[in-house]
Input
Amino acid sequence: MNLNQITVPSLDLTKSITFYQTLGLKLIVKALPHYARFVCPDGNSTFSLHQVEQLPKGDGISVYFECDDLDDQVHQLKQQGLLFEQEPVDQTWLWREARLKDPDGNQIILFFAGENRLNPPWRLKE
Output
């Protein structure tokens, strides 16, 4: 299997489309007001938004996007007006992460993990 896409809920796709285009995703389907789909700039994964009347309760959704040049990406996105809750920081799980919220409050994590993404020191042995 290969992960094809992730779909997240949105109250206002117009605002969310602008946000995700600013992140660098390319809009490939625009079926307003109910649905929008993007392709990620690297690889073949897609990401979509689905209009809902009410957002999920609790901690919500977290979406991770890997960036080889995390610090530069964050700097560029801040210059385009995006506000980050957390600047890039090295985590104990050996990833470098920055965090921000999309217009619907979904947690967006931009990160760089390199080799540790699939092969951390604590990976299970086959």
